[in-house]
Amino acid sequence: MEKSNFSHIVAWVDLKNLGFYKDLFTFLNWAVLYDDPNMLGVGDENGGSLWFGAPLKDHANDYDGKGVNHIGIGVKKQEDVDATVEYLAKRGIPALFETPRHRPEFSGTDSTYYQVMFESPDRLLLEVVYTGPKSA
Question: Does pTM surpass 0.90?
Answer without folding.
Answer: yes
